[in-house]
Amino acid sequence: MARFRLFWLTLTGMAVWLLTLLATWVLSASWGGWLAGRDAAQTDATRAFGALAAAGTVTLAMAALAAWWLSWPYRALSQAAQRLREGDAAPELDEKAVVQEIREVNAGFNRMAAELARAEHDRAVMLAGLSHDLRTPLARLRLEAELSVSEPQALAHMAADIGQLDAIIDKFTDYARPDVPKLQTVDLHQQVEVSCKRFDGDTRLRIVLALPTHLLVRADPVDLDRVLVNLLENAARYARARDGGPAEMTVSAYPEPQEVALLLRDKGPGVPDAHLGRLTQPFFRGNAARSEPSGAGLGLAIVERAVKRMRGSLTLRNLPGQGLEACIRLPRAGGGS
User: Fold this and answer.
1) Mean pLDDT rounded to a whole number for the chain
2) pTM for the predicted model, two decimal places
């Protein structure tokens, strides 16, 4: 591994140096013993060479030990940074290290991790409070509209607008969830079927399932359901057929050595290739064909965030001809087929 490179290079150099010295010493001693009767000074040279070899060996051993000792704080820093990048709580680094520069780096990293955790907590609290405060007047508006508006069409439009606002609040709440999911073994086929049942009777979307049974993944059922529902809702809104017919979504999956690839493919207009890398950014909207004013602009951002929390990955690409594919890779659990 790269973080052990300095240590292993030093150790390898020490081993090569030691073997060279030992070989030279043995040869010199043999020749010295053979020539001892003719030249006594050769024996003294052999002893001096042996002392030099021993000193060199000790020096290289100390260098290897020093290299390992110096690289230890950097290994700890690398591991803490990786955990922080993955969304876990980073371990607190030692701020009493012997080397001043390492103490300063560790103290700065600890402060940065604490500030990031505090900012994430404050954001989650703010959005949770905002969603709670908004739902109360929305409920009153819905009740007042039902009691005071006599025109059925106007009442239906008002109820739809209030429902849309309520759905947008849900999106903000989902995106701001700070908790780390508890991964467990999930039957992917069963979970997909449960999520798809929410769209029974929805004339906007036709779902085709092509998944093998007993395909097990490591996931959080709540987060996985949220991912599937967001992607299916996204297809129902933006992947409608050109003649106005329902969108068609094909859901399939196949196992890999360490992961399971879940594919959701629609037959909509797709998006410009230049926009693919930005679709998961919060509030970003693609072209007009995939941008409805009723959305919050957080659907795919929520999907990517939830997939990463489950130690997975999300890839979006345009299909040949037309359509968009979302490929979700999740850690595989034992027993898949």
Assistant:
1) 75
2) 0.56
